[in-house]
Amino acid sequence: MAAISDDDVEQVRALVAAIPEGMVTTYGDLAAAVGLSSPRIVGWIMRTDSADLPWHRVISASGKPSPHLATRQLDRLRAEGVPMRDGKVTLRECRWQP
After folding, report:
1. Of residues 59, 47, 66, 60, the one with CA closest to residue 9
2. Which of 54, 51, 57, 38 shows the shortest CA–CA distance to 8?
3. Secondary-structure percent of the chain, ordered helix, strand, coil, rounded to 5
4. What is the tens place of the pLDDT at every residue in 15-36?
5. Which residues of 50-62 are buried (b: 16+ CB within 10 A; e: fewer)?
6. Is the pTM of this model over 0.85?
7. 94, 34, 52, 25: CA torsion to nearest 10
């Protein structure tokens, strides 16, 4: 994995904190906004440093939640009014661009 600076981590955290309720963004959108080389870096940051953030608003580009988080993530998003179909978020209706 590419080197990650404290500034990269803080930029990702700030963007995740800014995602409005009822909206989602993707790991790739966040990576592009911060200038990171891969969405996987955002995933690593989220996995290690996002407990105090609205982590559930960050989703894969396919609209599918991570399998190990699917129930919790979809429940939280549903409670915020995020549109879904067949267990996937309908990104074209609720995608937030950082």
Report:
1. 47
2. 38
3. 50, 10, 40
4. 999 999 999 999 999 999 999 9
5. beebbbbbbbbee
6. yes
7. 10
